[in-house]
Amino acid sequence: MIPKPFSDVTTGGDFAIPETIRLEFQDARKAEEELYRGYLNSYARDLSAQYGIESPDGMMWVRMLLNSETAHHPEGYVMIIESGDIRINASTLQGLKSGFQSLLQLVFLAFWQHHGRLQERRIVDKPRFAWRGLHLDVSRHWFGASFIRQYLEWMEALKLNRFHWHLADDQGWRLESERFPLLHQKGAWRKEADGTVYGGFYRKDEIRELVAYAASMGIEVIPEIDIPGHAQAILAAYPGLACFPQDFECLNVWGISTHILCAGKDETISFLEDLLSEVAELFPGPYIHLGGDEAPKDHWKSCPHCQKRIREQGLKDEEELQSWLLKKMSSHLRGLGKQVIGWDEILDGNIDSEPIVMVWRGDGKDAVAKAEAGGNAYILCPNSTLYFDWKQHYATDAFGSHGVSTLEHVYSFDPMSVTGASPHLLLGAQANVWTEYMPDPARVKALLFPRAYALAELLWTPQEERDEADFLARLKALEGYL
Ligand code: TNX
Q1: pLDDT digits (tens, 9 = 90+) for 454-481
Q2: Which residues are catalytic?
Q3: Do residues 62 and 88 lie in contact, with contact meaning Cβ atoms separated by under 8 Å?
Q4: What are phi and psi of 50, to 5 degrees?
C-alpha cells in the first residue's frame, strides 16, 4: 500500500473476496453507506472481470464504525481483516474514509497480485503531518471542472487533504465574479501569439460543487489570489489599479510581469477588500492564499501614489509597502474568519506572526529560519524537490520546466530535515504543479505520477518506516491503480 500505514501486521491467513460485499456504517449514515457499498461492489466486480478471476459465491461484511475508543488520531483508523470479514474503526468520519481508501488499494492488490485473495491483517494507521497538500496552476493553462474532480479523486486515493488552487496569474483570471465581472469577461482570456483566444473560468456554481465534492472526501480547498504581482490579468480587466494605467492584456508568454497592482491607490485597497470578501464567501475553508511572490517593484519606485503611501505610513521602502498591503488584507480577512497564507517572499518585508508561510525558494532553509524566528507557521514546498513542473528524469528528451526532481529525490525528502529550533511551526508539505509546460490533463498526469505517490508517503508514513527499495516495490505492485 501507498502511503504505507503506521503499522500493518499480517496474521498469516487469507481468503477469497466473495461475489457479494455487504457494507454497513454503524451509525446509520445511510447515504454514505449506499455510496460506499455500491462503489466497492462494482469495483471488485470490475477487477475480477479485468483479471479473469472468478469470485466465489457467498458474501463478506465490511463494518465501518465510528468509535471514540479509536481516538489515537482524528484522521486515523484501525482496520482488521480476519475470518472473512473486515472492520474499520475510527473516531471521525475522516478516519473512516482514510480506512476505506486503504481497503480499495487492498482490493486492487488482491485481484492484481494475489488471485483475488485478501490477506488477514491488522492495520493501525494515522498521518505524520496535518498539511498534505497538492497545488494546481489553472492560469497558465486552463483545466475545466471535470479534470479538477479527477485531480481531487487522485488526492483522496493518496490521502492528500489540502488542494491549493492557483486561480489567478498574469496569464489568466479563472473565477466568475459578480462584483467585478470584467475579471472573468476579460481577464480570463488571452490572445496567443498566433491570434487565437485561449482561456476559461469557473462559474460560481461549479466552484461550490467542487468545494463540496472535495469536502466529501475530507479535502480542504485553498484558493489563491496572487497579489500584488502575478496580477496582470486583473489589470487587463481593471487597468486603473496599476500605478500607470495603460491598455493591458493578459500575458501570453511565461515569466514575471513588472505590471503589478498599485498599493498606493485607495481604489486598489477597496477593490481587493470587496473582491476578497466575494472569494471568502465562495470558499468556506479557513485559509486564503494571497501569493506575494515575484512582485518587481520597478513601478512602485516611481509611482507618486505608492511613494505617498510609504511616506504617510512611515514605511522604510517598497518591501515594507508590500507588507503593509498584506497586513491590510489579512486584517480584512481575519474579520471574515480567514487566515492568510503567502509565498516566502512575504518574509522579505516585516510581517507579524499571523500569516502562514509557504516555503518554496531553493532548499527552503533560509525561509524556514526566518519563519521560525518570526513565529510564523509554515508549509514546505521547496522547488528543488517538490516542484512537479520540473522534469522527472535526466534524459535529454524528458519534458517539464528547467529543473530535475526525480522520484528518488522526492521520496528522500524529509520535511523535518529543514526545520530549525521551532519544528512545531511546521504544518506539513505540498507539491506544486505549475502548468507552463502542461497544456493538457495528460501532461499533468504524466508529471504528477509517480511522484505523487512519493509525496503521499513522505507526508503520511513515519520517517523510520520509510525505505526507498520497499517503496519502489510497492509502487510497482500498484501499477495501473490510478
Ligand atoms: C515560480 S513558485 C513561481 C511560479 C512559476 C514557477 C515555475 C512561485 C511562488 N512562483 O509563478 O510558475 O516558479 O517553476
Answers
A1: 999 999 999 999 999 999 999 999 999 9
A2: 169, 230, 294
A3: yes
A4: -60, -40
Q: What is the largest CA-CA distance in the chain?
A: 81
Q: Distance, CA 190 to ligand 1 centroid (Å)?
A: 19
Q: Record the cell numbers describing residue 355, joined without a space.
A: 500569516
What is the position in ligand 1's atom list of the atom closest to the CA of 230? 11
**Assigned C-alpha cell, 370:** 526566518
The span from the CA of 166 to the CA of 224, in Å, is 5
Say what the pTM is.
0.97
* Separation of alpha carbons 307 and 465, rounded Å: 55
| DSSP symbols for 288-302 | EE----S---HHHHH
How many whole angstroms from 446 Cα to the centroid of ligand 1?
A: 19
Residue located via cell numbers 481468503: 15
In angstroms, the Cα distances linking 397 to 145, 394, 401, 449 are 31, 8, 12, 17
**Phi and psi at residue 14, to the nearest 5°:** -155, 170
- Percent of the chain at pLDDT > 70 equals 100
The HSE-up count of residue 109 (CA atoms within 13 Å, CB side) is 16
**SS3 of 73, please?**
coil
